[in-house]
Amino acid sequence: MANSLVKALPMLLSMMISQLIYLKIDNKYNVTNKISSRLSIRQELKAFFCICCVMISILIIGVIGIYVIDINNTLYGVISGTLTGIGISISVKLSKKQTL
Q1: Number of domains comprising the chain
Q2: Domain range for residue 80?
């Protein structure tokens, strides 16, 4: 149990840190509004589209890590945690915009 928590810790920490950094950057530069204006799909599907793009990019990085170069498990956890944190932050902002 403790071993699996230690293995998941880099991913969780990078996810939390990337969410905090993205929210600060988004408050200053309005990145989510720019992403939302560039997507030409319905408003209720924008958050889902963002999460799908993040999951596809994590899958591509995983495949590259298996077949092309050898990526350490810790590095893969940090990369996937960062992408997941940014994706969650964007999708939460987009879904809040939908209800307004």
Answers
A1: 1
A2: 2-99
- The model's pLDDT over 39-70, given as tens digits with 9 standing for 90+, comes to 899 988 999 999 999 999 999 999 998 899 98
| Exposure letters 35-47 (e unless 16+ CB within 10 A, then b) | bbeeeeeeeeebb
> Which backbone phi and psi does 18 adopt, to 5 degrees?
-70, -35
For residue 23, what are its two tokens? 């929210």
Q: What was the pLDDT predicted at 5?
A: 83
∠ CA 83-12-63, nearest 5°, is 45
Could you tell me which of 31, 62, 29 has the C-alpha nearest to residue 39?
A: 31
**What's the pTM value of the predicted model, to 2 decimals?**
0.88
